[in-house]
């Protein structure tokens, strides 16, 4: 499992002055509201600054550009999500068997991706590092650790990538919009996929290795 201490996704400077922390909180709250009301594609740093009551220079200095602000929005939710699977109650948190935790984690990740799909889609378009850095790196470490605990004979890193690929925001959007599947059907598909990995023939590894 990942370390017990929560890992910052963005590397935001900390600790910070009280006034800087208040400004950041206002900016994040306003940006979250605007995304919920209009979608992430219409997020404007100028409007965020105006509604948060701070200078636009403050927003640009703190977040750099819209992509930086999008990362910060994800970071807020990521910290809570990390707390749930690192130290929260089972089955997502410690205390349940690894196969049960894996299923619960993937289901929770689907819920989170659907809830923030506009932000994830914007991030996917704006920054390549959004795909396999930040949250993905932490999720991969966690999933690989659960797989290694449940099935030490398989290539846990490979199968962690394979499972997490199915929780890609674009694929989920396609499943919901184009395939007409419900969120619960997507989760059930992931249940079956993770079960297939956990019950794969022993000794088999990617590339045909025995």
From TrEMBL:
UniProt-listed Gene3D superfamilies: Tetracycline Repressor, domain 2
PROSITE patterns to which the protein is assigned, alphabetical: HTH_TETR_2
Segments of the chain annotated as binding DNA: 44-63
Record domain HTH tetR-type: where: 21-81
Any Pfam family matching the protein: TetR_N
Keyword DNA-binding set for record: yes
Keywords from the UniProt entry: DNA-binding
UniProt keyword Protease present: no
Name the UniProt record assigns to this protein: AcrR family transcriptional regulator
Species of the source: Nonomuraea roseoviolacea subsp. carminata
